[in-house]
Design a protein that fits this description.
single chain; alpha+beta; L-2-Hydroxyisocaproate Dehydrogenase, Chain A, domain 2; four-stranded antiparallel sheet; two-stranded antiparallel sheet; 6 helices; about 15% strand
Length: about 180
């Protein structure tokens, strides 16, 4: 029998990219593993929505709106950057391996009973009926799956976190939908 609380996909790669690019913006790439940027949406291009307003590290004010838009675009199309760097002869396999290992480590910790483990995951919105309804309402679409922060736990204790969109990102989602 299908249980939406037991099905989730790895979207850690988008979070790893966002963290790396924000660490570059704050001019300290050693911070990359510590930077936390929730990423919601899907896993291709404009469906990737980094919640930069919820960054664990403050973005420099000098970044401004144009810099913010460039950063969002880079996060959304970071995979293309890697393919171009490899001249079409490969993709971000090392990045995906790192992201997969990071995700697996979180799942193992949660299975061992550690509390408070949050992992970005592509989930069935019925896994958390209230949170799923809120996301559907905010986005304005009848979605079945969406990437959101998930609190991992043993058994059926998987609950979707609340994805809060800033006015800029709400605008971005609406603008992309109109394109």
């Amino acid at each position: 029998m299908f249980d939406p609380k037991r099905l989730f996909g790895v979207t850690t790669l988008d979070v790893v990219r966002a963290s790396t690019f924000v660490a570059e913006v704050v001019k300290d790439t050693t911070l990359s593993p510590e930077v936390v940027i929730p990423v919601v949406g899907g896993h291709s291009g404009v469906t990737i929505v980094p919640l930069l307003s919820q960054s664990s590290h403050t973005l420099p004010a000098s970044l401004g709106q144009p810099g913010l838009e460039i950063l969002v675009n880079r996060i959304q199309f970071g995979g293309d950057e890697v393919v171009k760097a490899k001249d079409g002869a490969g993709s971000a396999t090392l990045s995906m391996a790192y992201a997969g290992a990071e995700f697996a480590e979180k799942v193992i910790k949660a299975l061992k009973g550690q509390k408070g483990i949050v992992a970005p995951s592509y989930v069935h919105l019925d896994a958390d009926a209230e949170g799923g309804a809120k996301i559907k309402n905010e986005i304005g679409k009848n979605l079945t799956y969406f990437s959101a922060p998930v609190l991992l736990g043993v058994g059926h204790d998987v609950m979707m976190g609340e994805a809060i969109l800033t006015s800029y990102l709400s605008f971005t989602v609406v603008r992309r939908r109109e394109d």
